[in-house]
Amino acid sequence: MNQPAGKPSLRDAIKDASMQKQKDMMAGHFDRLTSSHETGAKVCSTFVPGNLNELIMCFDMVNNLPEVNAIQSGLRGKSGAYVMEAERNGHSEDVCTYVKSDIGMMARGNIGPNGKEMPKPDMLLLSYTGCFTFLKWFELLREQYKCPTVFLQTPYMADGKITPNMIQYMVKQLKEDVIPTMEKVSGVKFDIDRLRENLRQSAKAEDDLVYILQSAKNKPSPIDAYFGGIYYIGPIFGAFRGTQDAIDYYRFLREEVDERLKLGLGPVTPEGPMEEEKYRLVVEGPPNYTHFRQFWKMFYEEGATVVASSYTKVGGTYDFGFRHDPDRPLETLAEYCLNVYTNRSLPMRIDMLVNYINEYEADGLLVNSIKSCNSFSAGQLMIMREVEKRTGKPAAFIETDLVDPRYFSAANVKNRLESYLQMVEQKRSGASKGVAA
Predict the structure, then answer these.
(1) Residue 80 lies in a domain
(2) Helix residue ranges per DSSP H, 272-373
(3) From CA 426, how far away is CA 236, in angstroms rounded?
(4) Is residue 191 part of a domain?
(5) pLDDT single digits (tens) 29-83
(6) What is the pLDDT of residue 434?
(7) Residue at 2 is within a domain
(8) CB atoms within 10 A of CB 89
(9) What pLDDT, in 10s, does the model give residues 356-389?
(10) Number of domains the chain is built from
């Protein structure tokens, strides 16, 4: 397909400096993982929601995140073959495609994004925060690797409140199960002062992250909080939270955002700066990674900027006030796990989305329902209707998948998005007539 003059191909997408910096950080992390057999570093596999990176670092272990590996496979066009490999080995079409991509990747040599073999984990830390699939996923990995497995259970926020009993229950698990297992696997004695320092580092980076996300309240928004947000959350939701590298990255990103605010610029897209912000949207649900740039292109070509999203809160809801607290080290780890998006009840999720639409002056809510992700997809139609009712803003529904290319229909997604934006225009027109009357 011919590209318009002056437009880069999707392969040669433009990145702002912070996106390139994030990409370099992730590349360095995968190099550390794949060289762990040479350095002697122990590897702890865990998940993004509720991951305890500050604690993992206390034992000189390297953090490995299976769903991030699946995302990387999707972005590199590898996940489709991995998913089909897992299905040939007996996994159902209805199983989460993150899981199948991970299982298929292992079956095909477990080669990481840097072209090197990924390490076998020395331990599995299942920090359970509301996604039942994680339980079954780690059962499969435990069978594969035969390594110590720790289950940190997070009570579900059914009533929308954190009680002292919840925190005590989790701290007890940390003291009696998680920390002793980490000491045994790593051979490193737990140092609570080291944990406090890591938590202090986390809080600094979290302050800047919230500033960056909330910059989208400006018009035009200097960031896209969904597609661009995927880059922005990478370091803090994964292996860099609690490090000086994370502090430096978010300070750098904040300066970049401030410069865009000063100049009145919108977000950077894969084809350059967004010229005009016509629509401001809130998005619920994860993105599709196998066609990530094509998906994003459908939005920015219409002048649609995502000013807030639920997916960029899966690793922490910092914009609602939580910060890691070095003065309460174990308690703050428990509160972090309790607060992540996947552990929030449907009423809490609705409140969050309504808040975003109102505070960010969005035109409405768009739900991207993921075929294989029960954690996000369950209740989304109810969420959509309730948000529409409470805000008076239109809501719509599109469907894709995480990392299975078979479930991305570009024509279908584009038609639904265009229809939705027409609905937004009609709603605006009706509001204008009402004001005039």
Answers:
(1) yes
(2) 292-300, 329-339, 346-359
(3) 39
(4) yes
(5) 999 999 999 999 999 999 999 999 999 999 999 999 999 999 999 999 999 999 9
(6) 52
(7) no
(8) 11
(9) 999 999 999 999 999 888 888 888 999 999 999 9
(10) 1
Q: With beta carbons less than 8 A apart as the criterion, state whether 241 and 202 touch.
A: yes
Q: φ, ψ for residue 93 (rounded to 5)?
A: -65, -25
d(Cα 297, Cα 277) in Å, to the nearest integer? 14
Of 339, 365, 324, 128, nearest to 226 (Cα)? 365
Alpha carbons within 13 angstroms on the beta-carbon side of residue 176 total: 7
C-alpha–C-alpha distance, residues 62 and 65, integer Å: 10
pTM equals: 0.93
H or E stretch at 433: helix 410-436
The answer to whether residue 6 is domain-embedded is: no
Using DSSP's 3-state secondary structure scheme, residue 373 falls into coil
Residue type, 43: V
Which structural domain, as residue segments, surrounds residue 250? 14-436
d(CA 430, CA 437): 11
Listed in sequence order, the DSSP H helices in 76-118 are 79-88, 97-107
| Helix, strand or coil, per DSSP, at residue 408 | coil
- Rounded Cα distance between 267 and 303, Å, is 11
